[in-house]
Amino acid sequence: DAGVTQSPTHLIKTRGQHVTLRCSPISGHKSVSWYQQVLGQGPQFIFQYYEKEERGRGNFPDRFSARQFPNYSSELNVNALLLGDSALYLCASSLQANQPQHFGDGTRLSIL
Amino acid sequence: GQQLNQSPQSMFIQEGEDVSMNCTSSSIFNTWLWYKQDPGEGPVLLIALYKAGELTSNGRLTAQFGITRKDSFLNISASIPSDVGIYFCAGLMDGGSQGNLIFGKGTKLSVKP
Known about the structure:
heterodimer; B: 113 residues; mainly beta; six-stranded mixed beta sheet; five-stranded antiparallel beta sheet
């Protein structure tokens, strides 16, 4: 069975641009969460969606937004990119919102 | 952002050695998780713990959920070269209808030169 898949794997943007990252959860998983991981740190929680509704939001500015589609896939959008947004963006899925999460391999975002 | 206190930050292993690492928090968690991350990949779930005092094994890995629910421990017995990587503890903030993970900074396992 396919695990969590994310696209693209790598992305280079310049300051001020906008980016959309995509995630497909494990089949049957209804919850998708997004995390930001900078070098040398553990992942930081950005959003959780369950049954297409936002269930949790981390301490990130309003430039970050997300949504979940009827097939449970999800998009993370970041507007007005800053140099500090350079990071690995991880998507994780779980059967239910309060159950252990399984991660994809992430999208490496570089801001120039 | 909030992070758990994970130690040691790094350690060197020789094949066959046992390895121990731990994680502490000021908050209580109902679920503790341990992940391993290899370069260029996402974290892979190793062990999930659901009950205070619980001891769970996955092959050569054994993890424990602390009695206070504020800490957890991971042991690796008879280490092998493929154990090299970064190990993260994570507490699941369980709000009933939602659950986000709070991670430690990781313990980096490397091979002794």
